[in-house]
Amino acid sequence: MNLADELAVLIRQEETLQYSRFDETTAWQLGSYLYDQATTESWPLVIAINRFDRPLFLAARPGITADNHEWVRRKQRTVQRFLRSSYRIRYQLALDNQDITQRYHLPAAEYASVGGGFPIIVKGAGVIGSVTVSGLPDRQDHQIIVNALCELLGHDRRALSLAADCPFER
C-alpha cells in the first residue's frame, strides 16, 4: 500500500473504533487487555489511558525506560492537539513532505508524529482522551492498540489492519 491508501485505513480505524460510553471501568478493561497482551508476548511496554482532564490507567512492563514515558507524553499531546491518532498525523505530514515542526510550528520535544497514540472516541461526544503505548516500533505500537480496540469493540481486526510492509521503510 502507498501512503494515501494507508492513510485511508487510518481514517477508517478512527471512524470505526468508537465507544458508546467510556468511563474508568472501560479504561481498566482496555488497559488490562493491553497489559495482558504485552505480558503474553513479553513486550516491554508503557500503557497510558487518559481523558483529557485526568489519567485513568497507567502501567509499565519490564524493559521500558524513562524515554518510553516521554514518548507517551508526546504522543498524548499530539492526539489531544489534533484529535487524531499520532500515526495518522505522521502520514498526513509525510504526504506533504513536512514534519510537525515545519507544518505546525510545534516543538518535536513536546509532540510526536509517530505511531502509538490513538484517540478515545465516544459516539455523539467526540474525542475525549487517548490510549497510548510505547516500547515497540511505532507501527507496532499503533497496531496493538487497534487490535485491542477491535477485540473489545467487536470489530474484525483484519479489516482495520495496516499492510505488513511499511511505506516508510522502503
SSE topology sketch:
Blueprint: H1 3-16, H2 24-41, E1 46-51, E2 54-60, H3 66-82, H4 86-95, H5 100-104, E3 117-122, E4 126-134, H6 138-153
Antiparallel strand pairs: 1-2, 1-4, 3-4
Helix pairs in contact: 1-4, 2-6
Number of separate domains: 1
Which strand order does the major sheet show?
Answer: 2-1-4-3
CATH class: Alpha Beta
Q: Give the CA-based shape.
A: globular
Q: What is the percentage of strand-forming residues? A: 15-25%
Per DSSP E runs of 2 or more residues, the count of β-strands stands at 4
Estimated radius of gyration: 15 Å
Mean pLDDT: 96
Helix content: 40-55%
CATH-level-2 architecture: 2-Layer Sandwich
Question: Helical region count?
Answer: 6
**Order of helical and strand elements:** HHEEHHHEEH
Structural class: alpha+beta
Could you name the CATH homologous superfamily?
A: Haem-degrading domain
Largest sheet: 4 strands, antiparallel
Unreliable stretches (pLDDT < 50, length at least 5) are none
Instruction: Report how far apart the termini are.
Output: 11 Å
Which fold name fills CATH's third level, the topology?
Beta-Lactamase
